[in-house]
Request: fold
Amino acid sequence: MNRRNFLRNSIAGTAALAGTALLNPACSQEADKPLTMKDLIDNGGQNPRLPEEGISCYPDIGNGNHQLYQLWIRKNNNVLTSYRAHPSQKYPFFYPLLGPASGISLTSESGKPWPHHRSVFFGLDRVNGGNYWQDTLAKGQIISEGPSFAKDDNGQFLITPTSAVIADKCFWKRDGEAIIEDNRRFTLRLIDNNRYVLEAEINVKMLTDVTVEKTNHGLFGIRCAPDIAPTGGGILLSSEGDQGQEATLGKPARWLAFYGRRVNLKEEIVEGAAVFCPSKAPHPKFENCPWFTRDYGNISPTPCNFFQTGEKLELPKDSELKFRHWVVAFAGTPKDAGLDGLWEEFDKG
Reply:
């Protein structure tokens, strides 16, 4: 489908959602019939049963062995994002994260000057001497048990025309030994034609005593597409009104966003992506959490880069950290997207 048709269909499809009941969107079947994994798989097969509008989901099975490695979420049969959890990767991540107006990803799967950055990510370097962010798999790896579309207490998939929920359990392993278990839940939710949000809840449990040393790599964050980064002509803006790496690095903020005009388009389209950080910190060291920022397109709220000499994060066995973040994809500017109002909604969660 060409881009003009994508834009037209996206607008028409989203407008139609306003009057659409919460039907089973993944295939044309009775609304009260429970959706099965086979329904989702068949929806991506040779004769897919496609929805007319709204969210649909498809699990990609690796090697035909019923192990799920990749989950796709679509809107009006156009890809919005995909959760990628293949065991050959350093860690699971989301890519793409499509712009609401352009249909072009707001994030980069890989790029200079640091090609190991992966779109929407969660990882960390210098954990018990290992690296769960970059370098070889032998240095440390975050391994998924196999993600799935989440279900409610009645066994029904949590998929509606406006939302879908992904659940995953991961183990942080080095030399075959797991030091951390994390349970993650992601909710993709359409807000309107110009905005959608990826809500992340990640509960991290220490399986042994864990020590994190000073590092700029991690924790939750995004690597944006080159054209909306300051080095590509875009803007990096914080909720406090600061712009660019120099003004935002190491400072607390409710949110940071990259936005700008998308390149190589006939229409003039401005889009962006924002990361939200809650006021309630998961650990005392995260109070008034400073942001790690880079003009080439990396943002992450993390205190680990700003430890004093010799300072470490000590986490005893069985202790837990609970992370909450939103990634908001929006058309227009942060003001157009109403990011301050959305953050207030987010912070109540």
